Please model this.
Amino acid sequence: MAEFGFESNDDYQYHLKSFFSAEHGFIRVLNIEGEQQRRKTAFANALALSLEYPHHLYYDFSQQEPIEGKVILPETQDEDGVKAPPVSDFDHIMSEACAFSEAEETVLILDQLHLTDFQNHIRLYHFIQTQKWTYNNTDLQANKNKLILFFISSEPLYHSLQKCSFRLWVNTVSDKQILYIPEDFNLSPQAKLFMNELSQLFIELGLSPTKSEYRHILHDIHYNIETEEHLINSLYAWMEGINRDILLSNQIKHPLKKVMDEIHNYLIAEQVTVVTVE
Model:
């Protein structure tokens, strides 16, 4: 999933294995919960892309603009002259999901679900149970074996929707501590001392960088960082969710100094090694 824009120290392997292996007599639904940030959306899109399904659909209930590429049908009326209401963007994306799922694997992400009318929650529940989507006297059938729904909502789902979905929590920031070692980044053993001090600093900060974030920090250590202020700026620049107030607080000053002392020692040792080899 990191390849598609979502990286975390948290392991979601068990959650997803349980979701995909669960017995189901209706459409599979993954309810992605978390704090009110777009990290849930990033998770959903990365997961959808990593599945490599032929069709990946996305609808955001907060969007104002019409769906790009939507075909606008001419207004119709029945034999009594009663005009049919226009097809909503929501009904349009649901009809696409049904049509695609007839033959090929399809995932549909419904984002900001709490912003839609409660009537649509009820419609979705019946759709999951019956695989039938109805609008404007039109019935469409989905294939429950080829369609997966991802729900994202900043509020609890309608009870019946929750009962037929698998719930997964996405942390805004992972607090799982990863103890990186020099070999993880092809560094010399001398890097272990400053990396150990960085680990203690991350414990004080209450979070741990992902591997790509750590790689950025290491680059700055080798080429840019000369002072504690430089280190603070690099940590804030690269680590998602870091609290700048804590980073600038007195409780962090001592751990920062210890990191910088070891960085200086490491860089001096590396320069001596290079000179000696030459």
